[in-house]
Amino acid sequence: MPRPTPPPATPPPATPPAQPAATELLANALDQRWQSCRDQLKRCRQEKLAPDAVHDLRVAIRRLLALLDLLADLPPLPGSLRAVRKPLRRLLDALSRLRDSQVQCQLAAKLAAPDATTRRLFRRWLAGREAKRRPRARQRLLAFPAGQWAKPFRQAACGLRTAAAAEPARERCRRAVRQPLEEAWRDAEKRRQRLSPTDPHSLHRLRLALKEYRYALEALLPLLPPGGDHLLRQLRAAQTRLGGIQDLRVQAALLAKCAAQAPAAAAGRLSGLEKSVHRRLARRGRAFLAAAARAPIPAPSPGFADSLALAVRRWPNGCRNRNRA
User: By three-state DSSP, how is residue 199 classified?
Assistant: First the structure.
């Protein structure tokens, strides 16, 4: 009688991949964000402050600054590297002013003006405004000494990797990183709670706080619980809507300035256009305020994963505009 065939051996359970040490993860992020910033600096210089190059450089600088804020209290961070934040912010400020003018020039081309002459007048006025801001941005772009900071960034990344080998250092780094991340969340949530229909700037302040929180979360994405990438998409969508609202607010203010300087015949048409933009701004602002009032921003806490499923369904999204970084 043939012997029964033994059942196939059950393969051992797969070993889950080890979670990366926070210090190693931060060292890699520091290398990547600094290199991205250098690449975008070079590109922006080569393309002579082209709109897309300015946008991408601003994103790279903001991401690097957010990571430096996370690392601010870590011993491996050299003091010289802490000093890089000031020239980076000065460069970012000049680029932001130029970028605002560039965005408004692009939006003016799509403006539903009552006639082509009014739109052309506004676009010429905006082009003159952009031209005035370009020299300052160019001066700070060319003056930023990227080579001077290469060594401190290498030293910082090396110090983080060295700390990754020691368990006490890893735990200290994890605690030190958690505090600024929670502060970024608290600031964003505080801004959400202070949203007011009578304070148009409250939406812009929330947008900036969300941006800082999102950039900090991006650096720690591999350490987040499942659903962290979904949260980032939802924050980006909310940020996009807020960006569209801010663009309308700035556009209305610029139309008012242009009308004050225009000939009387054109001033009336520009004022009518400003009122039309204000009506669109009010509709979008009310819609966002109603949605954001029902949705607290998820916190990086032990209950983070539990609150994520509910929160990401409620966060305002679905904007038609291009994603804004």
Answer: strand
DSSP state of 201: H
Angle formed by the axes of helices 116-143 and 264-292, to 10°?
Answer: 70
How many residues make up the chain in this entry?
Answer: 325
Mean pLDDT by 10 residues, the chain (325 residues): 54 48 80 95 96 96 89 67 88 95 91 80 94 96 92 85 62 66 88 89 92 85 71 86 93 94 89 92 92 80 42 40 42
Q: Are 231 and 217 in contact (CB under 8 A)?
A: yes
Q: Is the dihedral of CA 32, 37, 38, 42 positive or negative?
A: positive
**DSSP code string of 54-112:** HHHHHHHHHHHHHHHHHTTT-TTS-HHHHTTHHHHHHHHHHHHHHHHHHHHHHHHTT--
Both tokens of 281, joined, read 């701004």
| Angle between helical axes of 51-70 and 167-193 (0-180°, round to 10) | 120
Cα–Cα distance between 209 and 263 in angstroms, integer? 40
Tokens, residue 221: 């994405």
